[in-house]
Specification:
The complex is a heterodimer of chains A (289) and B (514). By secondary structure, chain A is of the alpha/beta class. Chain A is built from eight helices and eleven strands. Chain B contains 21 helices and 16 strands. Chain B is α/β, with parallel strands linked by helices and 514 residues long. Classes of the chains: A alpha/beta (289), B alpha/beta (514).
Chain lengths: 289, 514
C-alpha cells in the first residue's frame, strides 16, 4: 500500500523561486546527499530521538516521552536552539502530515496558488507519498489546475521517476558538479544518476529546469562549460537553466569560509553557456556577497 | 536670543533652519501662526481626550481654513474652462496639460499642495487627437517631470485605469523610467475591464519602483456614486468633486489601556471615545464650513468643481494591533494580532463595531451626513504604534498569510485602508507570482494591493515614496521634496525601520518639531 503520510519540515504558501507563479512549497525532511555547502543541514536527517535538544529548549516546547522527542508547536518561539544543539543534522521541529492534511492546506490557500512544489531535504526519499499526493491533486476537480513539480538533487533512479511521471508536471534538478569525483567530494555521492535523471526527464518532456550552483574555486561548472553544454545540448529540447550564486550566509562547517559567487562570476559563466547555444538562462535577481 | 517671545523664537528657528527651502519655511510659519489661534471650541471631555492623544487631530491646525483633501472635478474643468482663472475650454492635448498644470496650483490641501491630480488617462483621452504614441510620450514625460519638480510633495497622487489605453500604458512606462518620488500613483483594476496584460505591466512596475498601488476598482466603486471617487494621498478613497474635510483618529491602544477587558472595551470605552471623536470632527467641520469661508469663497465651489456637500470628515483609527494585543493579554491569551485566529476575530469585531458606529451617527457637514471610516496609516510621532489595522513591522507572516489575516477588514474602511506586503527581490524573476497574489487578494475583498519589493532606491513610507539616496543626502544638503524631509525623520525613528524592513511611517505635518 502506498504511504499516505510524510515527515515534513515546513510548508510555505508563498514562493516565487520554486517554479512558475506562486507555489506552495512542501519541504520534506531527510536527504541522501550531505553537501558541504548545505544551507539547511537540519533537514538532512530524521530525528533520532536522542533527546539532546530537550534540555536546551528555553520555552519548554520540547519534552522526552517514551523514548521520543516531542515538540509542541504552540509553545515554540522558533529560536532554533534545538537545531544548533543537534549533532545529527536534524531537528525535532517536524510535522507528520497525511495526504488529506496536505490537501486541506492546499485548499486553504488555493486562490493564491499556481501550483505545488515538493522540496526538501530530498523529497523523492518519500516518493510513495508524493505519488499519492499528486494523484489525488490530479483527480480532484477543484485542484487539478495546479501544476505539480518536484525540486530534487536528481539522485532518484529512473525507475523512481517512472512511478510519478504520469502525475507530475516536471522537475527541477540540481547539477552540483560535472566531474564525478568532485561531485562525490561536494555531496557525498557521485553524479551518474543525476545526469541520468536529467536525460530521462528531458526525454519525457518533464525537465522543468536544470539548476547550476556556481561556487568559485570549489565546483568545476565554470571550468567545464564545453562538456556541460555538450551534455545539455544533446537533450531533445534545450532546457531551462537557472544559475544560482553560492553565498556563505547560513552555511555551517567548511563551506562557511568559501568565497561567494559574484554577479560578475555568474554573468561570465552565463555568457559562456550562451556562446554554446544555451539561451534559456535565468540569473539570480539578488547577490549576497 | 534675547528679548524674543516664545512665538518669535519658534518663528526664528524656522526662518533660520539650514535645511528647509524658502517655501517649506513659509508653510511652517503659516501653520505656526494658525496654531497660535485658540483651538476650535471643544467641550472638556473632548479636549482632555485630545490632549491625552487618545483621539488625535493629525496636527491639522487649530483653525481649519481649508479641507484636508480636495478632489476637484478636473474633467468638468477641462470641458468648461474657468472664469476665475481666465481659461477657455481645452481644445487639444497641450491645452489640457497646460490647464491641469495651472489648476494644480490652486487646489488646497493639508500639505499646501494638491493631493489629487485626477484619473489622468480618463481625463486626457478625449484630447489625444492625431498625436502619435511618440508625441504623447514626449508630452507626458515632460508633464511627469514638471509634477515632481514643481509640486515636490509625494502625497500628491495620480490615478490611472481601469480600462486599457495608450495613456495608461505610457504613464506606467514613464513612471518606471523616471523613478521619481512624485507623483504617487494608483492603478485601478477592474476584473471586467482590465486585461491581464495591463495588470502585468503594473505588477512589473511595482517590481522596479514600488509604484503603483493597485486598487480594487469595483469594490471601492460600490461605496461611491456615479460621479466617482479618487484615491489620494496615502490610500484615501474619497468622492470626486468633493473630498475629505478633516481627519481625526482614535488611538485604539490608548483606548485598550483604559479598558478593563475586551467586553469593557467594546461596550464602554470604545463607544465613549467614538463619541468624543465625533464631537472633535463636528467642531472642526463647523469652523471650516461656518467660519473660514472656504466654501463660500473658493472659485472651485463657484465653478462647480467641488461641492460642499461632497466632502466627508474621515473617522480614523490606528494601532489596532497594539489594542488587540493588550486586550488579549488582559484575558491571559498569548495569541498576537496578525498571528492568532482568536486575536483576528476580536480585531474584526472591533472593526465591525466602528463601522456600525459611523453608520449610525450623522454629522452636520458630511457627504450624506455621514463620516467615513478610515484606517489611518500613521505619522512619524507614532512611536510603537502600528498604522491602521496593519500587522506590526517585523511580525508579518508570509504575504499569503498576511493577506488572509487582514482582508476581512478592508470592506469596512470606506475612505481607505492599507496593508503593505514586503516581497523579496527574487520576485523580479517571477512576476506572475505577484500577479497571482494580487488577483487572489482582490477576489477575497482587499481594497488595495500594495507591495514593497526590497532592493530598490524608491522606498515606501506609509503610502508615499522617498528615495533612500535622498534620505542619505538630506542632512548635508536639504531636500527639494517635502516628504523626503519627513521620511528622513521617520527613518531616524527609534524603531529603526530602515534597518529592518524597507518601510517606515509617515508624518504629514512637521510642526511638532518647532
Amino acid at each position: 500500500m502506498s504511504k499516505t503520510w510524510a515527515i515534513i519540515n515546513k510548508i510555505l504558501p508563498f514562493s516565487c523561486v520554486d517554479g512558475p507563479g506562486n507555489r506552495l512549497v512542501i519541504f520534506l525532511q531527510g536527504c541522501n546527499f550531505n553537501c558541504l555547502n548545505c544551507h539547511n543541514p537540519y533537514t538532512i536527517s530524521l530525528c533520532q530521538n536522542c533527546g539532546e535538544c530537550v534540555h536546551n529548549c528555553p520555552h519548554s516546547a520540547l519534552s522526552f516521552e517514551n523514548g521520543k522527542t516531542v515538540w509542541q508547536a504552540n509553545l515554540c518561539q522558533q529560536c532554533d536552539i534545538c537545531i544548533k544543539t543537534c549533532e545529527n543534522q536534524s531537528t525535532p521541529m517536524t510535522y507528520r502530515y497525511s495526504v488529506d492534511d496536505i490537501l486541506s492546506v492546499i485548499r486553504k490557500y488555493l486562490p493564491f496558488l499556481t501550483g505545488i512544489t515538493l522540496s526538501g531535504g530530498e523529497s523523492t526519499l518519500q516518493l510513495p507519498f508524493i505519488q499519492q499526493l499528486f494523484t489525488q491533486i490530479k483527480n480532484a476537480p477543484d485542484l487539478n489546475q495546479l501544476t505539480c513539480l518536484i525540486d530534487s538533487n536528481g539522485y532518484l533512479a529512473v525507475q523512481g521517476w517512472q512511478k510519478v511521471a504520469s502525475v507530475m508536471d516536471g522537475a527541477m534538478i540540481d547539477l552540483k558538479a560535472w566531474d564525478t569525483a568532485l561531485h562525490k567530494y561536494l555531496t557525498g555521492r557521485d553524479n551518474q544518476r543525476v545526469k541520468d535523471s536529467i536525460r530521462y526527464l528531458a526525454s519525457i518532456n518533464q525537465l522543468h529546469e536544470v539548476r547550476l550552483l556556481l561556487i568559485p574555486q570549489q565546483s568545476d561548472l565554470h571550468n567545464k562549460v564545453a562538456e556541460i553544454a555538450e551534455f545539455l545540448n544533446s537533450l531533445p529540447d534545450k532546457p531551462n537553466i537557472r544559475i544560482n550564486a553560492f553565498h556563505a550566509h547560513g552555511v555551517v562547517g567548511l563551506a562557511k569560509h568559501w568565497q561567494s559567487a559574484t554577479q560578475q562570476d555568474v554573468e561570465r559563466f552565463a555568457s559562456e553557456l550562451q556562446k554554446q547555444g544555451l539561451n534559456q538562462i535565468t540569473l539570480p535577481s539578488v547577490y549576497l556577497v | 536670543m534675547v528679548n524674543m517671545t516664545t512665538f518669535q523664537q519658534q518663528c526664528y528657528r524656522i526662518v533660520t533652519d539650514s535645511n528647509l527651502s524658502a517655501k517649506q519655511k513659509t508653510n511652517n510659519l503659516a501653520l505656526l501662526a494658525e496654531n497660535h489661534l485658540p483651538y476650535v471650541e471643544l467641550d472638556n471631555q473632548t479636549e482632555q481626550a485630545l490632549s491625552e492623544r487618545v483621539i488625535c487631530d493629525m496636527y491639522e491646525g487649530h483653525a481649519p481654513y481649508k479641507p484636508r483633501y480636495v478632489l476637484p472635478d478636473y474633467s468638468l474643468f477641462l470641458q468648461q474652462g474657468s472664469t476665475w482663472l481666465e481659461l477657455e475650454p481645452a481644445q487639444d492635448f497641450d491645452d489640457a496639460l497646460n490647464m491641469l498644470t495651472i489648476i494644480y496650483h490652486h487646489v488646497p490641501s493639508v500639505t499646501g499642495m494638491p493631493v489629487y491630480l485626477g484619473c489622468l488617462d480618463t481625463l486626457l483621452l478625449p484630447y489625444i487627437g492625431n498625436l502619435s504614441e511618440n508625441d504623447l510620450y514626449q508630452r507626458l514625460k515632460r508633464f511627469w517631470i514638471m509634477l515632481d519638480r514643481n509640486l515636490p510633495d509625494a502625497f500628491m497622487h495620480a490615478n490611472i485605469g481601469p480600462a486599457d489605453n495608450i495613456i495608461c500604458r505610457l504613464l506606467l512606462r514613464i513612471d518606471q523610467e523616471l523613478k521619481q518620488v512624485a507623483p504617487n500613483l494608483t492603478f485601478f483594476y477592474d476584473d471586467n475591464l482590465t486585461p491581464e496584460s495591463l495588470l502585468a505591466l503594473a505588477i512589473g512596475s511595482i517590481c522596479q519602483t514600488g509604484k503603483p498601488h493597485i486598487a480594487n476598482y469595483n469594490l471601492i466603486a460600490n461605496d461611491f456614486d456615479e460621479t466617482g471617487f479618487g484615491v489620494v494621498s496615502c490610500y484615501n478613497s474619497l468622492p470626486i468633486a468633493g473630498g475629505g474635510s478633516t481627519l481625526s483618529r482614535i488611538n485604539l491602544k490608548e483606548v485598550a489601556l483604559r479598558s478593563k477587558d475586551s467586553h469593557d472595551f467594546l461596550t464602554n470605552t470604545l463607544p465613549h471615545y467614538c463619541q468624543l471623536q465625533l464631537k472633535l470632527i463636528e467642531a472642526r467641520s463647523k469652523f471650516l464650513y461656518e467660519k473660514s469661508h472656504f466654501f463660500t469663497n473658493s472659485f472651485l465651489v463657484h465653478e462647480n468643481l467641488i461641492k460642499p456637500d461632497r466632502f466627508a470628515p474621515m473617522f480614523g483609527i490606528f494601532a489596532m494591533a497594539e489594542a488587540v494585543n493588550i486586550l488579549q493579554e488582559k484575558a491571559n491569551l498569548a495569541g498576537r494580532y496578525g498571528q492568532d485566529e482568536q486575536a483576528q476575530i476580536l480585531a474584526l469585531k472591533i472593526t465591525e463595531q466602528l463601522a456600525d458606529f459611523v453608520a449610525q451617527h450623522n454629522v452636520t457637514y458630511g457627504w450624506h451626513n455621514k463620516a467615513m471610516l478610515h484606517a489611518q496609516s500613521g505619522i512619524s510621532s507614532d512611536h510603537g504604534l502600528t498604522p491602521g489595522v496593519r500587522i506590526p513591522y517585523g511580525e508579518e507572516p508570509d504575504p499569503v498569510n498576511h493577506i488572509m489575516s487582514v482582508f476581512a477588514h478592508h470592506k469596512y474602511y470606506r475612505s481607505g485602508i492599507s496593508d503593505i506586503l514586503t516581497i523579496d527581490e527574487t520576485i523580479k524573476n517571477n512576476q506572475t507570482a505577484l500577479l497571482k497574489i494580487c488577483l487572489a487578494a482582490f477576489k477575497l475583498g482587499m481594497r488595495e494591493f500594495t507591495a514593497n519589493v526590497t532592493g530598490s532606491d524608491l522606498l515606501r513610507v506609509t503610502g508615499y515614496m522617498v528615495r533612500l539616496s535622498d534620505i542619505a543626502n538630506f542632512k548635508a544638503q536639504g531636500s527639494r521634496t517635502n516628504t523626503t524631509v519627513l521620511g528622513h525623520e521617520a527613518a531616524e525613528d527609534r524603531s529603526g525601520f530602515l534597518h529592518r524592513q524597507p518601510r517606515v511611517i509617515s508624518h504629514e505635518q512637521n510642526m511638532g518639531n518647532y
